[in-house]
């Protein structure tokens, strides 16, 4: 399916950044969002401490607030963890699951990511499921094999296009300033689209596939206009409203 037929999503992953004072920067995102109405959707995933505040500020703006991770269970004895229900209760509409930093720092497996995505669905949240190869895997030409296995293992059955977003994030491109060539991005996104269509039939054609990894205003035009790239998951550049909006501006 051509990228143009889906409303693109530009999601900012703030990671472990943001204090109460960051509301000023977020207010700038909200101020810029109106220009994108009907053309692209914006999402900001701040640390969990800011979700309720940001969700309140974002009400009526069309900007969605997302979490960066959730536990698979709705509640229980899991010190320090946050459930999908808690994110929804705080005003989130989505949650990132299976980010490579979670897969690496917290040894999250595909099965765990799948359980988290299922928890997101249970709580009424959209799950942004991240996949992507490491540098050595790309060099060994195993990218499609790795991404295919991650998709197979991390995605719950029966997902709808409203519930699920995929983020293709080559691990070596995250925070490095490096990006794959447009041809490489096109190859992986076409592969993911095919897998989604095979598995989810009609819904598979409507699930958005984001590209993530060193997206900036300077490369957004090149990366986000590739076929089957339906938006971006942005880390570092999402912390500055001008950069984040500068990326989304390609859809204006
Ligand atoms: P980056 O991070 O934009 O800083 O490379 C992307 C991500 O980790 O989602």
Description:
The chain has an 8-stranded parallel beta barrel with strand order 1-2-3-4-5-6-7-8, surrounded by 6 helices. The mean pLDDT is 97. With 252 residues, the chain is of the alpha/beta class. Helix 2 links the parallel strand 2 and strand 3. It has a domain of 127 residues: Aldolase class I (TIM Barrel), CATH 3.20.20.70. Bound molecules: 2-phosphoglycolic acid. The site of 2-phosphoglycolic acid has 13 residues, from strand 8.
- CATH-assigned fold name of the domain at 95-215 and 231-236: TIM Barrel
CATH class (first level) name of the domain at 95-215 and 231-236: Alpha Beta
Q: Write the H/E string, N to C.
A: EHEHEHEHHEHHEHEHEH
User: How do the strands of the widest beta sheet line up side by side?
Assistant: 1-2-3-4-5-6-7-8
Q: Mind summarizing the main beta sheet?
A: 8 strands, parallel, barrel
CATH evolutionary superfamily of the domain at 95-215 and 231-236: Aldolase class I
- Subunit organisation of the chains: single chain
The helix-and-strand class reads: alpha/beta
Number of helices: 10
The total of beta strands comes to: 8
* Morphology call: globular
Head-to-tail CA distance between termini: 21 Å
Could you name the key traits of this structure?
252 residues, 8 strands, alpha/beta, globular, TIM Barrel, eight-stranded parallel β-barrel, 10 helices, binds 2-phosphoglycolic acid
Layout of helices and strands:
Layout: E1 9-13, H1 23-33, E2 41-45, H2 51-58, E3 64-67, H3 84-90, E4 94-97, H4 100-105, H5 110-122, E5 126-131, H6 135-139, H7 143-154, E6 164-168, H8 182-204, E7 208-212, H9 217-223, E8 231-234, H10 241-248
Helix pairs in contact: 1-2, 1-10, 5-7, 7-8, 9-10
């Amino acid at each position: 399916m051509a990228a143009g037929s889906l409303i693109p999503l530009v999601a900012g992953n703030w990671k472990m950044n943001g204090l109460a004072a960051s509301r000023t920067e977020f207010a700038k995102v909200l101020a810029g969002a109106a220009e994108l109405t009907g053309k692209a959707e914006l999402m900001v995933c701040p640390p969990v401490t800011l979700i309720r505040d940001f969700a309140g500020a974002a009400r009526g703006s069309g900007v969605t607030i997302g979490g960066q991770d959730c536990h698979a269970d709705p509640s229980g004895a899991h010190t320090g963890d946050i459930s999908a229900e808690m994110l929804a209760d705080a005003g989130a509409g989505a949650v990132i699951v299976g980010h490579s930093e979670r897969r690496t720092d917290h040894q999250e497996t595909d099965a765990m990511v799948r359980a988290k995505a299922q928890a997101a669905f249970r709580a009424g949240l959209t799950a942004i499921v991240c996949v992507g190869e490491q540098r050595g895997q790309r060099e060994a030409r195993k990218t499609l094999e790795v991404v295919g296995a991650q998709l197979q293992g991390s995605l719950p059955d029966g997902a709808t296009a409203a519930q699920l977003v995929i983020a293709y994030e080559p691990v070596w491109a995250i925070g490095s300033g490096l990006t794959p060539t447009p041809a490489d991005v096109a190859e992986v996104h076409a592969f993911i689209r095919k897998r989604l269509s095979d598995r989810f039939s009609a819904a598979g054609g409507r699930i958005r596939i984001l590209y993530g990894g060193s997206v900036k205003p300077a490369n957004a035009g090149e990366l986000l206009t590739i076929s089957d790239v339906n938006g971006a998951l942005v880390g570092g550049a999402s912390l500055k409203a001008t950069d984040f909006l500068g990326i989304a501006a390609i859809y204006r």
